[in-house]
Amino acid sequence: MEVWLTMPGQKQKTKYRQQLPGILLEAGLILGICGAGIFLLLEMLTGAADRLPFLCSVFITALVCLFTETMKKGRQITGTLIFLITGIIIFFFRRLLLAGAVVFWNKGANLLGSSAGIYLVRYQTVTDLDTELAATVFLVCLGIAAGTAGYLFFRWRISLILVLYGLVPVVLMVLTGSFPEPDLFIIFYFSLVLGLIRMHTCKEAFQQDLAFGEGVLFLAAVILAAGLILARMLPQEEYQELQVVSDAKEKAGEALYDLRFKKGQLNGLTGGNLKNTGNWTGSDETALRISMEKPQPMYLRGFVGSRYDGSSWKSIDSSSAYQERNLFYWLHQKGFYGETQLASGARLTDTSISSQKVSVKNLAADSRYLYTPYEMQQLPEGCQGEDGLADSTVGAKGFWGQRSYSFTTVQPLTSQFTDLGAQIYQLLASGKDPGYRQAESYYNAFVYANDLQLPKALESLFKQELGDAGDRTQGHTDYYTAITRIRAYLEKHMTYSSAADPYSKSGDFVREFLEDKKIGHSVHFATAAALMFRYYGIPSRYVEGYLVTSADIQDTETGQPLEIPGKNGHAWTEIYIDGLGFVPVEMTPEYYGVMEEADLKTGLEAKGRQAKAVPEETRTMQEEENIQTHWSLKLALFGIEKFLLLFLAVFDGFCVLFILTVVMLRIRASYRRRKRFLSRDDKKALCAMAGYAEDLYSRGENGYSKRAEELYQQVYQAGQKAAFSPHKIQLQEKDTCRECIRILKKELKKQKNWFDNWVMKYIERLY
């Protein structure tokens, strides 16, 4: 009797002892996955350092959930407890909780904005509360939520969400460029792996294989210790400075970039990465398809580089752009955008300027950018707002970029910027349109602060090569002097060639081009010229994009889409005209005259001072003869190109006509055969089917199956009967013919290769 009374208690105690290791193991895994993982993200986003309140709340919540599950109606009790605790905390500490959430949110928004160019809304903090206490309350509540989520993941075995969750720190490192502390990083990922293993090995809630658990934990401890020792022996700073690590990161970034945004190599454009500069290539493959009501030539800007570091051009860094977010918010609220400034300024001087809608289909070009003209009047839909590119490059939306978009543009203006610059200066000097003047003055100050940066070494080189920078008392050398001097220097000392030597990657790109190689293409000339303009005090940027030339639109009818090939890709320099905005200036001699240029000798002013012309160097007769010879050769090649295009067009037309003919003949033969098979005269129908079966049978060089042979003999006899016997044809005999034809076609197609089948289908028209 005593034994009977004490056994239930012993069994219950034994049950809890057996479950305890499993409970502690799962609580530890939840702590590692949800605790270490979420705090890892908090450290990367906000710099949070107080781990204890958060990690304790995660572990305690996980233990409560797991212990209450062992009771009867445990899951109902767990849910009720979590609900009550959360409700009490929210009710009594709601202001502190909200204030803490705002603190962490604003810190994360600042980091994403300054490092990744991702702009999030920031909220005003509550000043009458202790921010440290608010942050602690928020961390405790977040820990309760994390512990509950981890418990649910284990109960519902949601392994896919855990795998995706494991990718978040990696994505965040790529976006922000920051690296977390190694201890939490290692604990999180090993806990994640162990948690996934446990989810897929435990059939019941607390089933525990002690040998497996001890082995896995021992292995994790060894690897964790090795990782920590390695981190101490090779600090993070030294690791990041290793050349092999730097090269691997760069190659991985380029591969991901190509996978996301590129469909192939259309031309020699580098996206600003001068390390990849080599021979200039140009493909005839269509890069952009453009639809315009009134076709017009234009420069289509893609990548715009503001920062030069000796081996690459980059858009303005995200940190600088984020610091100016309030400026651009204010400018955009007033309707002032740097990308549309040229059109806005022109409308101030002439309100009758016409506009049209342009649609672009990006077929094979880099989809990271939207290719837009300088004359753009309205930004493409979805591009309004502040971003990390600060009114320079129009970035595409989406992980894969954007392939289709449209915008509104005005008539061509880049060939008139000298006159427009003078007109807009006079208008602003007269005090008209104070709103535009005020907005332009702020944007002007931003441009001068960011687009005049020049390495000291290059400044010394330019002083040696170009001489003194001129009179800078008015802010910069006058535009005409700067343009003509830079052009004269590049024409005299540099040689254009598409077969440029690859960049050595060891020194400065421009110094190597000017002092050593002296040979290059548009990427070289545009890079050197942009920095030379900065030497003269004129804000300038490096641009890559596509040209829509007068030759491209010459035979284009209204509304007809333009096919812009990859060979129209080009790099050029743009300079800032005070009051008017950025305009393109062609500095590659090979491209002079390709696009209509402004008259540089009229209208240009620098801060109100009339520009003084600097005479260009006189060219020798030999140079003139070389130019004539060059253009004669170019015209001859153009004639050959037109002949080849005509030949290909005729050949393609013949191929299309041939394909249409054989298809139509095949359709006609199939229709006539089907009509004979369905004839009301059963004898004629059976004769037609038997004759068709005989044609198919004669093509079988490797024989047929036994079933096919038997059916063919029956069809042959039925055909003889239909042709020479007065007896009526039975329905079964027609069905046998159909079955025989089906089997013969099936087996015949397996015997023949694709070409023989194509011939039999479209030339002999048996199928």
Automatic annotation (TrEMBL):
Q: Which residues cross the membrane?
A: 20-40, 52-69, 81-105, 133-153, 160-178, 184-200, 212-234, 643-667
Superkingdom per UniProt = Bacteria
| InterPro entries given in the database record | Bact_TGase-like, Papain-like_cys_pep_sf, Transglutaminase-like
**Phylogenetic lineage:** Bacteria, Bacillati, Bacillota, Clostridia, Lachnospirales
Coiled coil (residue ranges): none
Record keywords, A-Z: Membrane, Transmembrane, Transmembrane helix
Key word Membrane present: yes
Recorded source organism is: Blautia ammoniilytica
Which named protein is this?
DUF3488 and transglutaminase-like domain-containing protein
Statement: the UniProt record of this protein carries the keyword Transmembrane helix? yes
Q: Which residues form the Transglutaminase-like domain?
A: 514-589
